Structure formats: structure tokens, C-alpha cells
């Protein structure tokens, strides 16, 4: 059964957790946010290389380097922002993944979502206690 939000649209958090379980969802979120960190790192290398190549180059090459610096800086800042956002979101949700009664971590199923997917009601698989996980997205 696919959980639906109160506006009839399936939410991404409930979808992601419902499909593969919380632990798989969390693992996937961490992998994707660290891919953005890698992209940010590569942009910094590209940025430093362009600055290094700037010295002693012809005017035309220097203009190309300035363009490359701007492109690398833009991609790097975007990737850093995306990395921090996805990491904070995953950590915020993981901090709410403990069952309030039995303390079991990450073993729950999605019951319902509301407020457009901002809140996901989940049920502990061990003791069937229900609680709400708030998504910062
Ligand atoms: Zn429990």
C-alpha cells in the first residue's frame, strides 16, 4: 500500500522510506549528498588550476581562464549548498528515527503523510508505537 499525503500527492520522504525502508533511504541520501561534496572538491581543483594557468598566458587565454574560474566557482558553490542541504535534511530525519517507546532505531513503516509531505506518521515494527517525523524540506 502506497502512503498518500492529505492533498493526494505521494511525498518524496514517505515514498523513499516506503519503497526501500529507512536504513536504505538514509544510506542512499548520504551517498547522493557526498557525490555533491565530491563535485564541490573537483570544482575547487578546477578553480585552482585555472588560477595557476592564468599567469604568463596570452590575453585570450586569460579571458578563457576567467570564464573557467567563474564556471568552477558557480558549480562549486551550488554543489556545496546542495551537499549541506541534503546532509542536514538526512541528519534531521535520522535524529527522529528512534522509537519513543522501545528506542529501536530506523525500524518503522510509513503510515500516512500530511501537510504536503512535511510530516510523516510512522509505526514502529517492534512495538507498533506511532509517531510523527517532521521533514525540513
Ligand atoms: Zn518501538
Please explain how this structure is put together:
The chain is α+β, with helices and mostly antiparallel strands and 137 residues long. It has one domain (12-134). The chain contains three helices and three strands, in the order αααβββ. A three-stranded antiparallel β-sheet has the order 1-2-3, with helices on one face. Helix 2 (22-54) packs antiparallel against helix 3. It is rod-shaped. The chain starts with 11 loop residues before the first helix and ends with a strand. The structure holds zinc ion (ZN). Zinc ion binds next to loops. Residues 99, 101-102, 104, 124, 126-127, 129 line the site of zinc ion (ZN).
Structural class: alpha+beta
Number of separate domains: 1
Major β-sheet, in short? 3 strands, antiparallel
Shape by Cα distribution = rod-shaped
Strands, count:
3
Could you name the key traits of this structure?
single chain; about 140 residues; alpha+beta; 3-stranded antiparallel beta sheet; 3 helices; 3 strands; rod-shaped; disordered N terminus; binds zinc ion
Topology:
Elements: H1 12-20, H2 22-54, H3 59-94, E1 108-114, E2 119-124, E3 130-134
Antiparallel strand pairs: 1-2, 2-3
Bound molecules: zinc ion.
Give the gist of this structure.
The chain has 3 helices and 3 strands.
